[in-house]
Design brief:
The protein has 10 helices and 9 strands. It is an alpha+beta fold. It has 2 domains: about 70 residues, Orthogonal Bundle (Arc Repressor Mutant, subunit A); about 170 residues, Beta-Lactamase, CATH 3.30.450.40. The strands form 2 sheets. Strands 6-5-4-9-8-7 form a 6-stranded antiparallel β-sheet, with helices on both faces. Strands 1-3-2 form a 3-stranded antiparallel β-sheet. A hairpin with a 5-residue loop joins strand 8 and strand 9. Helix 2 packs across helix 3.
Length: about 250
Protein backbone atom coordinates (compact mmCIF):
# COMPACT_ATOMS: atom_id res chain seq x y z
CA UNK A 1 0.00 0.00 0.00
CA UNK A 2 1.41 3.38 -1.03
CA UNK A 3 1.26 6.48 1.12
CA UNK A 4 -1.26 7.90 -1.39
CA UNK A 5 -3.63 5.01 -0.62
CA UNK A 6 -3.68 5.79 3.11
CA UNK A 7 -6.58 8.14 3.81
CA UNK A 8 -5.90 8.80 7.49
CA UNK A 9 -2.15 8.71 7.92
CA UNK A 10 -2.21 9.40 11.67
CA UNK A 11 -4.42 6.34 12.23
CA UNK A 12 -2.08 4.26 10.07
CA UNK A 13 0.91 5.39 12.13
CA UNK A 14 -0.94 4.61 15.35
CA UNK A 15 -1.62 1.07 14.18
CA UNK A 16 2.05 0.67 13.19
CA UNK A 17 3.00 1.68 16.75
CA UNK A 18 0.87 -1.19 18.08
CA UNK A 19 2.64 -3.59 15.72
CA UNK A 20 5.99 -2.70 17.29
CA UNK A 21 5.01 -4.59 20.44
CA UNK A 22 5.86 -8.28 20.12
CA UNK A 23 6.82 -11.19 22.34
CA UNK A 24 10.46 -10.16 21.83
CA UNK A 25 9.78 -6.47 22.46
CA UNK A 26 6.91 -6.38 25.00
CA UNK A 27 8.02 -3.04 26.43
CA UNK A 28 9.23 -0.11 24.39
CA UNK A 29 10.23 3.49 24.99
CA UNK A 30 9.42 6.51 22.84
CA UNK A 31 12.89 6.59 21.30
CA UNK A 32 12.83 2.85 20.50
CA UNK A 33 9.48 3.12 18.72
CA UNK A 34 10.68 6.18 16.83
CA UNK A 35 13.77 4.32 15.63
CA UNK A 36 11.70 1.31 14.57
CA UNK A 37 9.25 3.39 12.55
CA UNK A 38 11.48 6.25 11.46
CA UNK A 39 9.36 8.84 13.29
CA UNK A 40 10.23 11.86 15.38
CA UNK A 41 9.95 11.46 19.17
CA UNK A 42 7.30 14.18 19.34
CA UNK A 43 5.21 12.31 16.77
CA UNK A 44 5.55 9.02 18.63
CA UNK A 45 4.67 10.71 21.91
CA UNK A 46 1.40 12.00 20.44
CA UNK A 47 0.52 8.59 19.02
CA UNK A 48 1.37 6.64 22.17
CA UNK A 49 -0.51 9.18 24.31
CA UNK A 50 -3.63 8.57 22.24
CA UNK A 51 -3.28 4.81 22.72
CA UNK A 52 -2.74 5.31 26.44
CA UNK A 53 -5.87 7.43 26.82
CA UNK A 54 -7.84 4.83 24.86
CA UNK A 55 -6.57 2.11 27.20
CA UNK A 56 -4.53 0.06 24.72
CA UNK A 57 -1.09 0.76 26.24
CA UNK A 58 0.16 1.65 29.69
CA UNK A 59 3.43 3.03 31.03
CA UNK A 60 5.64 0.98 33.32
CA UNK A 61 6.52 3.40 36.14
CA UNK A 62 9.78 1.57 36.82
CA UNK A 63 11.37 2.23 33.43
CA UNK A 64 8.96 4.67 31.71
CA UNK A 65 8.45 2.22 28.87
CA UNK A 66 5.08 1.31 27.40
CA UNK A 67 3.40 -2.08 27.06
CA UNK A 68 0.11 -3.39 25.71
CA UNK A 69 -2.81 -3.76 28.11
CA UNK A 70 -5.19 -6.67 28.52
CA UNK A 71 -7.68 -4.72 26.43
CA UNK A 72 -5.86 -6.04 23.37
CA UNK A 73 -6.99 -9.56 24.33
CA UNK A 74 -10.55 -8.58 23.50
CA UNK A 75 -9.62 -8.51 19.82
CA UNK A 76 -8.08 -11.99 19.94
CA UNK A 77 -11.24 -13.34 21.55
CA UNK A 78 -13.36 -11.77 18.82
CA UNK A 79 -11.16 -13.18 16.04
CA UNK A 80 -10.96 -16.72 17.43
CA UNK A 81 -14.69 -16.81 18.15
CA UNK A 82 -15.37 -16.16 14.47
CA UNK A 83 -13.15 -18.99 13.24
CA UNK A 84 -15.54 -21.72 12.12
CA UNK A 85 -12.75 -24.27 12.13
CA UNK A 86 -11.29 -23.64 15.59
CA UNK A 87 -13.25 -26.32 17.45
CA UNK A 88 -12.51 -29.04 14.92
CA UNK A 89 -8.80 -28.30 14.72
CA UNK A 90 -8.36 -27.93 18.47
CA UNK A 91 -10.19 -31.21 19.14
CA UNK A 92 -7.83 -33.03 16.79
CA UNK A 93 -4.80 -31.32 18.35
CA UNK A 94 -5.81 -32.22 21.91
CA UNK A 95 -6.43 -35.86 20.99
CA UNK A 96 -3.11 -36.28 19.22
CA UNK A 97 -1.24 -34.41 21.94
CA UNK A 98 -2.43 -36.89 24.56
CA UNK A 99 -1.83 -39.90 22.29
CA UNK A 100 1.70 -38.89 21.31
CA UNK A 101 2.85 -36.92 24.38
CA UNK A 102 4.14 -34.21 22.05
CA UNK A 103 3.48 -30.49 21.59
CA UNK A 104 1.24 -29.35 18.74
CA UNK A 105 0.73 -25.98 17.07
CA UNK A 106 -1.64 -24.48 14.54
CA UNK A 107 -0.84 -21.30 12.64
CA UNK A 108 -2.15 -19.22 9.77
CA UNK A 109 -0.32 -17.17 7.12
CA UNK A 110 0.39 -13.55 8.04
CA UNK A 111 2.40 -11.93 5.27
CA UNK A 112 5.81 -13.61 5.34
CA UNK A 113 5.23 -14.90 8.88
CA UNK A 114 3.25 -17.58 10.65
CA UNK A 115 0.70 -16.32 13.16
CA UNK A 116 0.22 -18.88 15.93
CA UNK A 117 -3.47 -19.41 16.70
CA UNK A 118 -3.59 -22.49 18.95
CA UNK A 119 -1.18 -24.68 20.87
CA UNK A 120 -1.74 -27.91 22.78
CA UNK A 121 0.60 -29.54 25.28
CA UNK A 122 0.38 -33.03 26.81
CA UNK A 123 -0.39 -33.39 30.50
CA UNK A 124 3.17 -34.48 31.26
CA UNK A 125 4.41 -31.05 30.09
CA UNK A 126 1.77 -29.15 32.03
CA UNK A 127 2.71 -31.03 35.19
CA UNK A 128 6.49 -30.81 34.96
CA UNK A 129 7.40 -27.75 32.89
CA UNK A 130 6.43 -24.07 32.90
CA UNK A 131 4.23 -23.83 29.80
CA UNK A 132 2.91 -20.64 28.22
CA UNK A 133 0.53 -20.05 25.35
CA UNK A 134 2.07 -18.62 22.19
CA UNK A 135 -1.26 -17.60 20.66
CA UNK A 136 -0.78 -14.37 18.77
CA UNK A 137 2.99 -14.71 18.40
CA UNK A 138 4.64 -14.67 14.98
CA UNK A 139 7.58 -16.51 13.44
CA UNK A 140 9.15 -16.33 9.95
CA UNK A 141 7.82 -18.74 7.35
CA UNK A 142 11.25 -19.60 5.96
CA UNK A 143 12.51 -21.46 9.05
CA UNK A 144 9.43 -23.06 10.63
CA UNK A 145 7.63 -26.27 9.69
CA UNK A 146 4.29 -24.45 9.79
CA UNK A 147 5.60 -21.76 7.46
CA UNK A 148 7.24 -24.14 5.02
CA UNK A 149 4.13 -26.35 5.00
CA UNK A 150 2.06 -23.35 3.90
CA UNK A 151 4.71 -22.24 1.40
CA UNK A 152 4.61 -25.73 -0.13
CA UNK A 153 1.08 -25.02 -1.40
CA UNK A 154 2.24 -22.01 -3.42
CA UNK A 155 3.90 -21.50 -6.78
CA UNK A 156 7.62 -20.73 -6.79
CA UNK A 157 7.12 -17.04 -7.57
CA UNK A 158 4.91 -16.57 -4.52
CA UNK A 159 7.29 -18.62 -2.36
CA UNK A 160 10.16 -16.31 -3.30
CA UNK A 161 7.98 -13.27 -2.61
CA UNK A 162 7.02 -14.60 0.84
CA UNK A 163 10.63 -15.22 1.86
CA UNK A 164 11.85 -11.78 0.75
CA UNK A 165 12.90 -10.40 4.11
CA UNK A 166 15.97 -9.85 6.24
CA UNK A 167 16.65 -13.40 7.43
CA UNK A 168 17.90 -14.12 10.91
CA UNK A 169 20.07 -17.19 11.41
CA UNK A 170 18.39 -18.44 14.59
CA UNK A 171 20.61 -21.55 14.79
CA UNK A 172 23.59 -22.92 12.85
CA UNK A 173 21.06 -24.95 10.82
CA UNK A 174 18.83 -22.08 9.71
CA UNK A 175 18.60 -21.78 5.92
CA UNK A 176 18.98 -18.16 4.80
CA UNK A 177 19.77 -18.58 1.10
CA UNK A 178 16.64 -18.15 -1.02
CA UNK A 179 17.49 -20.98 -3.43
CA UNK A 180 18.12 -23.41 -0.56
CA UNK A 181 14.85 -22.45 1.10
CA UNK A 182 12.90 -22.89 -2.15
CA UNK A 183 14.55 -26.29 -2.67
CA UNK A 184 13.52 -27.34 0.84
CA UNK A 185 9.95 -26.11 0.28
CA UNK A 186 9.74 -28.04 -2.99
CA UNK A 187 10.87 -31.16 -1.14
CA UNK A 188 8.11 -30.50 1.38
CA UNK A 189 5.60 -30.24 -1.47
CA UNK A 190 6.75 -33.56 -2.95
CA UNK A 191 6.59 -35.58 0.29
CA UNK A 192 3.50 -33.92 1.75
CA UNK A 193 5.03 -32.50 4.93
CA UNK A 194 7.61 -29.90 5.97
CA UNK A 195 10.47 -30.12 8.45
CA UNK A 196 12.08 -27.64 10.78
CA UNK A 197 15.42 -29.32 11.46
CA UNK A 198 16.57 -27.28 14.46
CA UNK A 199 16.21 -24.17 12.28
CA UNK A 200 14.13 -21.91 14.49
CA UNK A 201 14.87 -23.00 18.05
CA UNK A 202 17.91 -24.89 19.39
CA UNK A 203 17.37 -28.61 19.98
CA UNK A 204 13.81 -28.55 18.64
CA UNK A 205 12.61 -30.40 15.55
CA UNK A 206 9.14 -29.91 14.05
CA UNK A 207 6.99 -31.56 11.39
CA UNK A 208 4.23 -29.58 9.69
CA UNK A 209 1.44 -30.12 7.15
CA UNK A 210 -0.87 -27.66 5.40
CA UNK A 211 -4.55 -27.61 6.37
CA UNK A 212 -7.17 -27.06 3.68
CA UNK A 213 -10.87 -26.29 3.75
CA UNK A 214 -13.52 -28.17 1.81
CA UNK A 215 -13.00 -25.95 -1.24
CA UNK A 216 -9.26 -26.69 -1.14
CA UNK A 217 -8.50 -23.20 0.19
CA UNK A 218 -5.47 -22.94 2.47
CA UNK A 219 -6.53 -22.38 6.08
CA UNK A 220 -3.18 -22.76 7.84
CA UNK A 221 -0.83 -25.48 9.00
CA UNK A 222 -0.56 -28.01 11.82
CA UNK A 223 2.68 -29.19 13.44
CA UNK A 224 4.15 -31.57 15.99
CA UNK A 225 7.26 -30.40 17.87
CA UNK A 226 9.69 -32.08 20.21
CA UNK A 227 13.26 -32.50 21.35
CA UNK A 228 15.50 -33.05 18.32
CA UNK A 229 17.24 -36.08 19.88
CA UNK A 230 13.88 -37.85 20.08
CA UNK A 231 12.79 -37.11 16.51
CA UNK A 232 14.70 -39.85 14.66
CA UNK A 233 13.82 -40.98 11.12
CA UNK A 234 11.38 -43.61 12.39
CA UNK A 235 9.48 -41.09 14.49
CA UNK A 236 9.47 -38.51 11.69
CA UNK A 237 7.96 -41.10 9.34
CA UNK A 238 5.33 -42.05 11.93
CA UNK A 239 4.39 -38.49 12.89
CA UNK A 240 4.26 -37.24 9.31
CA UNK A 241 1.71 -39.97 8.44
CA UNK A 242 -0.34 -39.06 11.53
CA UNK A 243 -0.31 -35.37 10.59
CA UNK A 244 -1.31 -36.04 6.98
CA UNK A 245 -4.21 -38.20 8.22
CA UNK A 246 -5.16 -35.44 10.69
CA UNK A 247 -5.22 -32.89 7.85
CA UNK A 248 -7.63 -35.12 5.88
CA UNK A 249 -9.80 -35.59 8.98
CA UNK A 250 -10.01 -31.84 9.59
CA UNK A 251 -10.92 -31.19 5.96
CA UNK A 252 -13.70 -33.81 6.11
CA UNK A 253 -15.15 -32.36 9.31
CA UNK A 254 -15.17 -28.72 8.23
Amino acid sequence: MSQEDIKVKSLYKTLKVLECFTAKTPELGITEIGNMLGLYKSNVHNLISTLEVAGYVEKNPLNSKYKLTNKMLEFSYVVTSQLSYQDVIYQVMKRLTEELDEMMYFGVPHGNHVLYMFNAYPKIYNQNYPIRSIMGEKAPMYCTSLGKAMLSTMEEAEIRERIQMEKEKFTPYTLVDDDEIVKDVMLSKARGYAMDNIEHEPNVRCIGVPIFGRSQELIGALSISGASQNFDEEKVAKYSRILIDAAYEIKRRL
